[in-house]
Amino acid sequence: VILPQIDIVPFTGKFSLFGKLFMNYDVYVLAGPGFVNLVKKGTIDNSYCDTPANGQPTCRHDNATPLTGMKLAGNVGVGMHAFANNYFAINLELHDLIFKNNAAGRDVTGSAEVNSADLQWTNNWMVGLNFMFFLPAQVKVSH
Predict the structure, then answer these.
(1) 3 state SS of 102
(2) Helix, strand, or coil (residue 118)
(3) Measured over all CA atoms, what is the biggest interatomic distance in the chain, rounded to whole angstroms?
(4) Where on the phi/psi map is residue 46: left (φ > 0), alpha (ψ -120 to 50), or beta?
(5) Which tens digit of pLDDT belongs to each residue from 2-17?
């Protein structure tokens, strides 16, 4: 997954924990394109299928062929930075990756083959917890 994004920070502030530990924070919304590389994982287990006289299992998933490769996705979400000091912050983010997928590889349209018409829009949620370090710690800000 590759997620370039633009953050918009509508508000910032300061909070304290137990009146002793003070931290600055900002809350932001994010958006941007996403790139997701889909791969097929594992093999199909036909051990529970019925085997007719000709020896070939007759399971519906025998022809499951998930569409793989790099997919373009939409990326939207929210996040929060908590700045402990000038060089360390904790970041919590919630992303929604929106793209067309057919993870099971099933023929949804009944066309007897799996193709791009079988794709459906999916929402894929990700939560991230990051620890950020800023170098140099004292950045000069122009006024």
Answers:
(1) coil
(2) helix
(3) 83
(4) alpha
(5) 999 999 999 889 888 8
